[in-house]
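Hi team,

As requested, here is the filled-out complex form for the flavin-adenine dinucleotide run. I kept the field names the same as last time so the parser does not choke. Let me know if anything looks off before we queue the next batch.

— J.
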Amino acid sequence: MALTPEQTSEIEAARAKHATTRRATVPALEEMLFTAIPVLDHGFIRVIDYMGDDAAVVQAARVSYGRGTRKTSEDEGLIRYLMRHWHSTPFEMCEIKYHVKLPIFVARQWIRHRTANVNEYSARYSIMDKDYYVPEPAQMAAQSADNRQGRGAVLDGETAARVLSLLREDAEQTYGHYEEMLDENGIGLARELARMNLTLNTYTQWYWKTDLHNLFHFLRLRADAHAQYEIRVYAEAMLETVKAWVPLSYGAFCDYRLGAVTFSAKMMEVLRKMLAGETVEQAGSGLSKREWAEMLDALGR
Ligand SMILES: Cc1cc2nc3c(=O)[nH]c(=O)nc-3n(C[C@H](O)[C@H](O)[C@H](O)COP(=O)(O)OP(=O)(O)OC[C@H]3O[C@@H](n4cnc5c(N)ncnc54)[C@H](O)[C@@H]3O)c2cc1C
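And here is what came back:
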């Protein structure tokens, strides 16, 4: 992660400031505030601000006047009930704002999550840093044979080294051309045009703000094993911040969303038969081969 000394001292200055407030704060998240948590080779996430805590979810659900005097176990029970029954609006009462540094190809997946507020670094106004993502050798995998959207076996050392060298060469070459086109004493091309040939592994940055309900939706999709590794590692880092921020909601989310599976009506029919000791085969079950395999996988069979 390439933070300049100026950026590091800005973060330290922000962390050194203290404010008094009547609003609820969460000590564990305060501890993380502004700090850059490294992700990939040059990326990070930082929590910039937040509003609300587990009690705010409970307060909103009860539409109460104060924070109440109920026990933590009662609050936890209510939060788990809300999560279990898809009663989502109380979770929208909490908000969080991140500063994220991420490769452009990851940003393209991330931006599809429309229920957030985003402000990205302007490459029309500013010059892009020379930071580009190069995967770890363990991530250099071949195209999966059975999943068109996935990776298969890790490439052998020599092949992986060739790919790494292609990635580096291309990024270096296009960044060199970018600088040449920008050169005020040479071509002097506008920044908004010169950026167009930068490689998709170039890092961009944005501020990304969302509420807890939509953050959980994002995390359910992107912390999932089906998500591409390069976005999943961001989601995993964010999960740690959510755990610190709203531990009760996080626990309910892990239980009822992240670690949960959905069975279709037909799958339930099959399950009932299996539990009754009947032999059920894929053929005749009403499930496709893929659904059948997914169901057995979910059941650990
Ligand atoms: C593993 C994986 C593979 C993917 N593959 C592809 C792919 O190949 N191609 C591709 O294009 N995308 C792909 N996506 C992106 C995916 O289709 C969604 O666009 C993305 O996950 C954002 O989800 P979302 O729309 O639910 O989230 P958000 O945009 O945050 O929306 C949250 C919810 O709000 C509602 N909502 C928001 N905006 C609208 C609207 N305008 N109209 C109606 N309802 C709205 C919907 O209920 C939505 O679920 C993939 C995502 C994943 C996780």
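Two things worth flagging: The longest strand covers residues 43-51. The chain has a mean pLDDT of 94.

Thanks,
J.
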